[in-house]
Amino acid sequence: MAEVLEYNEDVLIKEQGYDDHFHDHHHGDKFRSGFISHYIFSMDHKIIAKQFLITGMIWAIIGAAMSIVFRMQLGFPEDSMTWIKPLLGKWIVVENGIGTLAPEFYYALVTMHGTILVFFVLTAGLSGTFSNLLIPLQLGARDMASPFMNMLSYWFFFMAGIVMFYSLFISTGPFAGGWTAYPPLSALPQASQGSGAGMTLWLVSLTLFVVSVLLGGINYITTVLNLRTKGMSLWRMPLTIWAFFVTAILGLLSFPVLVSGFLMLMCDRGLGTSFFLSEIFVNGEALPNVGGSPILYQHLFWFLGHPEVYIIILPAMGLVSEVLSVHARKPIFGYKAMVYSILAIGFLSFIVWAHHMFMSGVNPMISNFFVVFTLIIAVPSAVKVFNWITTLYGGNIRLNTPMLFAIGFVSMFISGGLTGIFLGNSAIDIQMHDTYFVVAHFHIVMGVAAFFGMFAGIYHWFPKMYGRFMNETLGKIHFWFTIVGAYAIFWPMHYIGMAGVPRRYYSFDSFDAFNDFALMNKFITIAAIIVFAVQILFVINFFYSIWYGKKMKTKNPWGATTLEWTTDIKPGHGNWEGNLPTVHRWAYDYGKDGHDFIPQYVPAQEGEKDVH
Amino acid sequence: MATDTALDHDIEVQSGDAWDGGKKPFKASYGKLMMWYFLLSDAFTFSGFLIAYGALRISSPTWPVPDFVFQTFPGGITGWPLIFVTVMSFLLIVSSVTMVRAVQEGARENRKGVVFWMILTIIGGLGFLGCQAWEWTNLIGHEHMSVTTNPFGTHVESGVYLEDANGDAYAAGATKETFEAGESYLIHKHNGDWVQREYQVTSGTDEGTRMNQEFGPKAFGALFFFITGFHGFHVFSGVVFLIIIMLNAASGVYVERKNGYEMVEKIGLYWHFVDLVWVFVFLVFYLL
Amino acid sequence: MTFLVVKGLVVWNEVMADVGIDEEVIEIEATGYQFAWDIRYPGPDNRLGEKDYTLIQLGINPLGQNWEDPQNHDDFIADQIYLPVGRKVRVRITAKDVLHNFYLPHFRVKMDAVPGLPSYFVFTPTVTTEDFRARLRDNANWQGLSDPEDPESLQKWEAFDYELACAELCGKGHYSMRKIVKIVSEDEYNAWLEQQNSYYMSQIRNTDNDPLKGQFLESDIKVNEKKFFEEFDNAMSSADTDDIVLPLRNINFETGSANLTNNSQYELNNLVTALTKYKDVSIELNGHTDNVGDSGVNQQLSESRASTVLNYLIDRGVSSSRLSSRGYGDRMPLETNDTEEGRMKNKRIEFKIFKKQTI
Fold this sequence. Notes:
The complex is a heterotrimer of chains A (about 600), B (about 290) and C (about 350). With about 600 residues, chain A is mainly alpha-helical. Chain A has helices at about 10-15, 20-25, 35-40, 45-75, 85-90, 105-140, 145-165, 195-225, 240-270, 295-330, 335-350, 365-375, 380-390, 400-425, 425-430, 435-465, 470-500, 520-550, and strands at about 90-95, 100, 280, 285, 470, 550, 590, 595. The longest helix of chain A is centred in the N-terminal third of the chain and has 37 residues, at about 105-140. The radius of gyration of chain A is 25 Å and the shape is globular. Chain A starts with 8 loop residues before the first helix and ends in a 15-residue tail after the last strand. Chain B has 2 domains: about 30-145 and about 220-285, Four Helix Bundle (Hemerythrin (Met), subunit A) (Up-down Bundle), CATH 1.20.120; about 150-210, no CATH class. In chain B, helix 3 runs antiparallel to helix 7, helix 4 runs antiparallel to helix 5 and helix 5 runs antiparallel to helix 7. The radius of gyration of chain B is 25 Å and the shape is elongated. Chains in contact: A-B, A-C.
């Protein structure tokens, strides 16, 4: 370790800090009044962040457990699953003593797995947690712009979760038409059991969820714009904040379009309108609907759906940038390029949606534009990857758990990004569309990668959240099993996909062409079970460490420059006891002028300039 | 919303670059910013609807002509194309003007002025809703349009009717009604049954064939009720908020607030937005 | 990267291009529904007939074909996809209920089937099923029994078939929408086409579900016309100078009356054409009935029927000087009057040709 300069932050903040008259209004912390208002209906952004995180973890376990159940059906179709019948009841069909998953429930599980992971875990659990935790802390704000709306945001998310959870237990089963909910399948209860009450609950749940995202997003944007502390200009914001900021903008602009699609879908289901339905003969009956277009829904959906991918991955990118820089003890390479590439990705994500629809019967001419825009996204993504790698190069790397996960993220993002280049090419997509290649691609690039970003964030900021460290040994076991396991799950899927095996198949028995991969499917399933078990280990580590982890002794254990490490070890509501810190430099002064790091609140030395 | 002020982010205006932190770059309070972002996202919801409208309309060759569909006026008057909806729009736009006055009075901390102009705005909003209610009643009750049936069709060729408006054969010597391509018609109900009048085509490739009036594109009814309904819902919630804020203003709640009549400003933003959306709805449904 | 994009787009546009207007192509139609595919071939006219989803009746009209469209009359529904090697194929892809996806994994063909919005895919099969099996013969993965429990079953490579699948989630049976695709030589394909029966002709024609029940189809009219002129021309060219009697087939009257049915116009128009062609011929129209009922009534009926036909011809511009009519009642049966069949044959109109003579 290089020479560590000791800064007496208390003195600096007290003397030079920025008085926002906080204590004129708040004599004592009135928010610590009782358990309910402190932990349940809390308006403190740090508590809300923890609420998002823990709710997200519960959903992650449910969603992942679902994937294990349907993976078992795929990997071991001959083996009996009667042992799980007490849990799943009638959804396990027992024939000749062999219990198999009912196909409709298989599809329900696949659908719920997608919905839960995409929306509840990787949107709310990731962006909700860290935007809430870090935006005020890293910007030097007392709280979000509107703590009340912030609380509502969580409780709308909670209600969305309750509704979705309830839908798992109704007699016709949860929605089973894929997380994209394409009509007519999602609009016609005649066509699929799950499209009845299950779909209604699904729509209600996701509409509540969108309300939550909008309440949160409006708050994040306003906070970033209005509540930066003195000296925290936009170009001094950590990359995490930039990422959350752009994420919130994406959510704000794309989710409403999804809602418009949902509302029309509800009308088609309930009122007999024909927005998305046309010339349908189902269940022995010709429906009166004419003139609608199922493809219109796909446009509306993917106008959200694609930005949604970046809503998931951008926060992870922000977290990883920060973690990499802190633990490599080096300034992030190409800070401005990183910011511009976040903005470019955000912008481009709005004009590439139809690359999900090359094979959906739209005019092939349109695809030409979308191919070009899609592949342009590779440029800012590549910029980010090169900058991460260059940041690592020559760094004084601490290989602790958060750093490992951050590096793992870069690895996953590269692997998944490369396959994205193939899929973005419409000509190759003819073969790859809706095969396991796609499954492998998006699981790696936005599933596993986003999880790695999230894990890096949790291990890194856990001390800030709970004043204790998570167990390093368990953390390293967690990392190594997860990264090896994730590749073991998804790497073979590329081969299966290239061979043309379509996704969302309950069984491959009926096709000679798809039935050759039984061994690989077994392997994938076993790997998935192991990875799942390791995640349980993480959960145990998490909860154990909250109460029994190694205690944090200093305010700034990682030697980071950003403001969240200047608060008390367990900051109260309002974050800083006295003045707010004033910012004098960017967030990445590592290894400068012979100092290991210089925090943001340290005034510029004589003749010193901002680096970037 | 009053709880928002629990943590007060009262930041002083300082010199230096607006984006340097420690101040509000847009010189707007967080509440107003949030309203702007909410409106932005709401604008996207409406765009979603209007894009759907455009897509479905373009794919249908027999979209009814608005001049024909919207030609009724209360009191049984027909043949006044778009007059009624003009009245409606006028009410809404005038209410926007009165809202501006209310905000102005708010800035002057003039309680009575705020209340007076807000009451006028509320009356405008209620008037608009009333008009919309009448229009819907007329379309549903009188012309039998619903979200699933659209009795407004459009001829793609010229022709001559072989039956009178009640679906009976013409009396001897009666002049037969003719029509041009592109003209819209309304399929009436006679004694509870739809009357799809028979006609003979007199132009185009199908010249000479006999046909019956067909129902218009279903999407017309669905989109009309859906989009104007969604907008009407916005107006309704706007009126509710206006009333609440007007009552607050009247009882002097804002006199004590540090940010004064900012709530009036915020609801004003919302009200102008609803007005603006109506301009677009008006454009696509009534003018195009 | 640029290369990838440009090359990719060129390929994409080549693959997705629709066929030219005059290009020779086999067009078939695939309709997805829960949970199978229906494959419709255009039949000899190479045109797929119109469809309307409101006409769909399960088991009777599975695709909702409009039988009033003559292009539908020779269409047939095949239980496998048979295609000749090396010929361009355009698949029109539709769906009945929800989204499906027409997926031929071995051909790199994939396209969504959308209810109400037909899509298409154009491709050319290059290797026949047989050739592909031969290629697999030496492949280690394709040895062994295709059905391990049946020692008599074929080797794996022998049992290979191209397949059609669904690649868009369409409900609980999504994974089972299999159809076999056979790529064969041009000759085998033609032989196979020969064996296929038009769905309309074999299942619908003249049943209660046929809106054209009792009416002549265009093909019938053509056949009748050909037959009529053959006979007439033969009669005219024969050296025989005797008067020749020819039947007027397909002339029908409403029961017990002398009103012509709609179907009768075709044969009568043929006769008009023939008389216009042979200007120096005159004919006598003879009416006959069966022996059911009173013979006086029959006599009257046969006379009035013959004169109805005569008037029809005059209306169409044949000079009345060349025409005469006569009724024979039930006196000259062609066959026995004891059977229904015989009686049908005895009820008839014939005409006698007088060459170069006037009455």
